[in-house]
Amino acid sequence: MDNRELLERLWTSDSELVLSAEAEHEMRTEDYVLEMPQSGERIVGRDTMRAMQQEYPNPPSIQILRITGSGDHFVILGRSDYSGDIYYVANVVEFRDGRIARETRIYGAPFDPPAWRAKYATSPPQ
């Protein structure tokens, strides 16, 4: 299985996250690192990541909008719903030896575009 197929295994055909913390744990390297620049958090080790996921009080639903990349480097664009609070996420995923070694997740809340830009832009499909 190549790295893209591994990423696609995380989601069902309707783009909803399906794997458990335990199944994801098996997809990561021992020295896995997750960085979230907006909060300044850095989670080191796949065991630490699994423990955090297992304790997460109300995980969001996650819809994947697009996966791009090849080889050992991918970007996943998604929409996370935290009980009605919506965030878009760009997740930079790096592989090593067929396992996820590093992720950088960048979250952004939706906002209304400025009126002056309306003549240049269209709304993306939801």
Could you explain how this protein is built, in words?
By secondary structure, this protein is of the alpha+beta class. The chain has a single domain (3-109), classed as Nuclear Transport Factor 2, Chain: A (Roll), CATH 3.10.450.50. It is 17% helix and 44% strand. A hairpin with a 2-residue loop joins strand 3 (61-70) and strand 4 (73-82). The chain is globular and about 50 Å long. It starts with a helix and ends in an 18-residue tail after the last strand.
Strand content: 35-45%
Largest sheet properties: 6 strands, mixed
Indicate the CATH architecture: Roll
Number of E-state strands: 6
Total helix count? Answer: 3
- Which secondary-structure class do the elements indicate? alpha+beta
Protein name: SnoaL-like protein
Organism: Kribbella pratensis
Domain SnoaL-like: 26-102
In terms of topology, how is this protein built?
Elements: H1 3-8, H2 21-26, E1 28-36, E2 41-44, H3 46-55, E3 61-70, E4 73-82, E5 85-96, E6 99-108
Q: How do you describe this structure in short?
A:
The chain is an alpha+beta fold and 126 residues long.
List keywords for this structure.
single chain, 126 residues, alpha+beta, 17% helix, globular, NTF2-like_dom_sf
